[in-house]
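Issue: ligand-bound run for NDP - logging full I/O for the record.

Environment: standard queue, default settings, no custom constraints.

Inputs:
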Amino acid sequence: MKVALITGITGQDGSYLAELLLEKGYEVHGIKRRSSSLNTDRIDHLYQDPHDPNQRLKLHYGDLSDAMNLTRIIKECQPDEIYNLGAMSHVKVSFDTPEYVGNVDGLGTLRILEAVRLLGLEKKTRIYQASTSELYGGMPENKNEKGFYDENSPFHPRSPYGVAKIYGFWITKNYREAYNMFACNGILFNHESPRRGETFVTRKITRATARIALGLQDKFYLGNLDAKRDWGHAKDYVRMMWMILQAEAPEDWVIATGKTTTVRAFVRMSFAEIGITLRFEGEGVNEVGLIDSINQEKYQSILNPNSDQRTTNNEKLPTIGKVVLSVDPKYFRPTEVDLLIGDPTKAKEKLGWVAEHDLASLVKDMMQCDVNLMQKEQYLKAGGYHASKNLE
Ligand code: NDP
Ligand code: GDR
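Outputs:
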């Protein structure tokens, strides 16, 4: 049985990857941080009784800032594969906690590589490093002749997060060259899912859309609506992480969809999923999104599938002309990455990677899950319980 160790197993990607590896028959070890409230929501469905001798998911307390702890865990589980997904991954927050981000996202990668080397596992253990399109920084002059970022495009990170991850990228490459280790960077462009953290822009939008439609929230605020991202589905991307470590040789790989979309268009698509057409008016910090029209049949069929409730909820249809989105400059970044678009040709041609989702199916998946989630919240609220916070 192959053994894998995942740092960041409690995050979006870690949870999907753990599912995938368990399905493939791996014994999966995961590192979770100790926190004052439980942080294992995304993997609770994979939990097995630790007393069961056949259980294949094992969790260890640990932290990427703690070299001794990492070395002990790697020594104990002797992994065939390590997926280093743990990171403080929020770009905007990295401007507030730059030293911590450098320590965890940058030096944390070194700690994993060095532990493997010191334990003499460099021939046995293959290492995947969660690298990122943030390395490119969206500099227009660095795109290739086809207008994309690929494995040969120069880097110019634009945040403490990007700068820390560039250290992670190069130290992974350096250990590969210096010690002949099977250590690879997956340069992944943005990937989302219903498990995406609530403060990343896509999930913030789908949650807010569902809450507004159900009357749990009046409006929401975003920063730069013009930013463009190459958004894929996390499930497709974790499959590629595994494929990278099964390749014949250790290399670095771009994973992307090859299409780019504005934040504004993502908002529009999310509202369209529940039958609401949005109109945008104004410019810059004065731009607002307001309800232009409602396809009542679609709206009712998604929000009130039980026809008995339809008449009652007709009165609660959102008002045409109502402003549901405003710009708040507090979400602007000191330095922004304006546009990202990746070229996944190498991954497709050499590893046969195919994405099963496009942006439309991603938005649909996220909206369906958030409508279900918010309907539960609405039910709790009706019963007198507190609804969850309107997160930033
Ligand atoms: P998440 O933010 O959802 O998950 C991050 C994980 O890292 C969580 O399990 C978190 O633990 C853990 N973590 C944070 N700090 C530490 C620490 N000090 N020690 C140990 N673990 C820590 O990120 P994603 O799943 O979206 O991303 C996975 C990786 O891929 C990250 O490295 C990210 O930077 C990178 N990446 C992500 C992309 C994306 O679009 N999603 C694109 C490109 C790269 P806890 O749950 O306790 O907070
Ligand atoms: P990003 O993702 O910075 O690309 O990093 P995020 O979803 O945070 O931002 C995408 C774009 O949307 C703009 N934006 C907002 N962003 C947030 N979070 N909140 C807002 O209110 C808002 N309004 C507009 C941002 O300015 C930005 O341009 C993600 C993370 O997963 C990283 O870990 C990963 O490396 C990269 O993707 C690839």
